[in-house]
C-alpha cells in the first residue's frame, strides 16, 4: 500500500518547514526508518524518517522550498503500485523562502498528476540563485523577465538586461525573508509580551568569590564551568528553596513543577534557541557544565531534538560575554520567570569607608505577575545573590 510522506509537525510551535536536502532520490528503494530528508523547523534541522518500506516513487517538494505542516511532500510505494489515490489529497504549499507564488492544487480526477505538476512548475519563477540575488540587489521584478536559460530559467544576463532597460529608481533596501526560527520568535514573543503582565526586579551581585571558584576549577580540572553554569546551579538551589518561582500559570491554576528544568538562551545568526538542562537541582556543577556545553554545541549546529529545547520551567539569558551591562528578558510561556544577566564589571566599591575595586554583576528577573508577586521574586533573588556570593554551596563535597 502506498505511503504518503508529509511535512511533519515536529514541535508545538512549528507551522511550516523547509526541505533542506533530500537524502533519497526518486526511484531509490527505502526501508522503514531510513532518513528521507533533512527538515528545517523553527529551531533546528532534523531528519525525516520513512514510516514504510518501498520505492520513493514521487518527490513533490524541491530542496529549499517552504511548505505548511501536513503538506504532502512525497510518496513511497512499490514499482507496480498505482499512487493516484496517494496523490489525491495533495495540499497546496506555503510560499517558499524565495517568495515564490504557490500553484493551486488539482485533484487527479480532474487533472492527471503529471499535468498538475507541470502547471505548478509553470507558475513558479525559475531563476538561478545568482539571478535571484542580482534581481534583489538591483530591484528587478523577476516575474517581468523572460528567461533565456534551460526550460526558460532566468539567468544572470537576463537580469542585467532588464536592469539596464529600466529607469533608475532610488534604492529602498532589500527585504530579507524571515527564517523559520525568526517566524517562531515573532509568534512566541507576540503571544507572550502582549497578554502576559510582566514585572521586573534588578539586583547587583558581588562575583569576586564566584570568579575565584571558577579560577580554582581552571587550575585543577581539564574542564571547568562557565559563568552561565554557575548561574544555572545557583538558580537551581534557589528555586529548590523557593518553589513558588518554579511555576506556570495555566489559566485556572498555578502549576508547581516537580523538576527544575533550566533553559539557556543561545544566540544564533537568525534568532535564538533555548536548550534545557533537566533536573538541575539533583546534578553536581561539573555535570551541569558538561551537559550545557554539549547542548550549546548542538544548538549552534542546529542538531537539537525537540525534547532538548522545550519544557523549560525557568530560563537564564546571559549577555555578559557581549559586554552588555543590563537588559530585560521576555518570558516564554509556560515559564513564569526568567533571568537576564549582564557582564561582570570591575567597579569602585565602598567598604567601611574605604573605596576599593570589586567585581559586580547586574541581574534582572522578569516575572509573570499572574503567578508570581514582587515579594516572592525579591526573596528568590536575595537567595540567588547569597548563593553566588558564597559559592562553596555550588560544589558538592566530592567535587572539592
Instruction: Please count the beta strands (DSSP E, at least 2 residues each).
Output: 18
Q: Counting H and I runs of at least 4 residues, what is the number of helices? A: 9
Mean pLDDT: 84
Low-confidence stretches: 92-122
Describe the protein in words.
With 400 residues, the chain is an alpha+beta fold. It contains nine helices and 18 strands. It has helices spanning 84-88, 113-123, 129-138, 156-165, 180-193, 208-220, 227-241, 285-300, 374-389; strands at 3-6, 16-22, 29-30, 35-40, 45-49, 54-59, 66-68, 72-77, 198-206, 247-249, 254-256, 262-264, 266-268, 271-273, 276-277, 314-318, 337-351, 354-368. It is elongated.
Question: Any chance you could write out the topology, listing elements then pairs?
Answer:
Layout: E1 3-6, E2 16-22, E3 29-30, E4 35-40, E5 45-49, E6 54-59, E7 66-68, E8 72-77, H1 84-88, H2 113-123, H3 129-138, H4 156-165, H5 180-193, E9 198-206, H6 208-220, H7 227-241, E10 247-249, E11 254-256, E12 262-264, E13 266-268, E14 271-273, E15 276-277, H8 285-300, E16 314-318, E17 337-351, E18 354-368, H9 374-389
Parallel strand pairs: 12-16, 16-17
Antiparallel strand pairs: 1-8, 2-4, 2-7, 3-6, 4-5, 6-8, 9-18, 10-11, 12-15, 13-14, 17-18
Helix pairs in contact: 3-4, 7-8, 7-9
Amino acid at each position: 500500500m502506498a505511503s504518503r510522506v508529509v511535512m511533519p509537525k515536529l514541535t508545538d510551535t512549528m507551522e511550516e518547514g523547509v526541505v533542506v536536502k533530500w537524502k533519497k532520490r526518486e526511484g531509490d528503494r527505502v526501508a522503514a526508518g531510513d532518513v528521507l530528508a533533512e527538515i528545517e523547523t523553527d529551531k533546528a534541522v532534523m531528519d525525516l524518517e520513512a514510516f514504510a518500506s518501498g520505492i520513493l516513487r514521487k518527490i513533490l517538494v524541491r530542496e529549499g522550498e517552504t511548505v505548511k505542516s501536513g503538506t504532502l511532500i512525497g510518496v513511497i510505494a512499490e514499482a507496480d503500485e498505482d499512487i493516484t489515490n496517494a496523490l489525491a489529497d495533495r495540499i497546496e504549499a506555503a510560499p517558499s523562502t524565495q517568495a515564490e507564488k504557490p500553484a493551486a492544487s488539482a485533484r487527479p480526477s480532474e487533472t492527471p498528476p503529471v499535468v498538475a505538476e507541470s502547471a505548478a512548475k509553470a507558475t513558479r519563477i525559475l531563476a538561478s540563485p545568482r539571478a535571484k540575488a542580482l534581481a534583489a540587489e538591483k530591484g528587478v521584478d523577476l516575474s517581468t523577465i523572460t528567461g533565456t536559460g534551460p526550460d526558460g530559467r532566468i539567468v544572470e544576463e537576463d537580469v542585467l538586461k532588464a536592469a539596464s532597460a529600466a529607469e533608475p529608481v532610488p534604492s529602498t533596501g532589500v527585504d530579507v525573508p524571515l527564517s523559520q526560527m525568526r517566524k517562531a520568535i515573532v509568534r512566541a514573543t507576540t503571544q507572550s509580551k502582549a497578554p502576559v503582565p510582566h514585572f521586573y526586579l534588578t539586583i547587583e551581585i558581588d562575583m569576586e568569590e564566584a570568579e575565584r571558584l571558577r579560577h580554582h576549577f581552571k587550575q585543577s580540572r581539564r574542564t571547568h564551568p562557565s559563568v552561565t553554569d554557575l548561574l544555572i546551579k545557583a538558580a537551581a538551589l534557589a528555586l529548590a528553596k523557593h518553589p513558588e518561582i518554579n511555576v506556570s500559570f495555566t489559566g485556572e491554576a498555578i502549576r508547581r513543577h516537580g523538576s527544575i528544568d533550566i533553559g539557556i538562551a543561545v544566540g544564533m545568526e537568525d534568532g535564538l534557541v533555548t536548550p534545557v538542562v533537566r533536573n538541575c537541582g539533583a546534578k553536581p556543577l561539573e555535570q551541569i557544565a558538561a551537559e550545557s556545553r554539549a547542548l550549546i554545541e548542538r544548538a549552534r549546529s542546529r542538531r537539537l531534538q525537540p525534547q532538548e529545547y522545550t519544557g523549560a520551567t525557568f530560563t537564564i539569558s546571559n549577555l555578559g560575554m557581549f559586554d552588555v551591562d543590563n537588559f530585560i528578558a521576555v518570558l516564554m510561556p509556560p515559564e513564569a520567570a526568567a533571568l537576564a544577566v549582564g557582564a561582570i564589571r570591575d567597579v569602585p566599591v565602598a567598604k567601611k569607608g574605604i573605596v576599593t575595586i570589586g567585581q559586580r554583576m547586574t541581574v534582572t528577573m522578569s516575572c509573570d505577575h499572574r503567578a508570581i508577586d514582587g515579594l516572592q521574586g525579591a526573596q528568590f533573588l536575595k537567595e540567588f545573590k547569597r548563593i553566588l556570593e558564597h559559592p562553596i554551596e555550588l560544589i558538592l563535597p566530592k567535587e572539592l
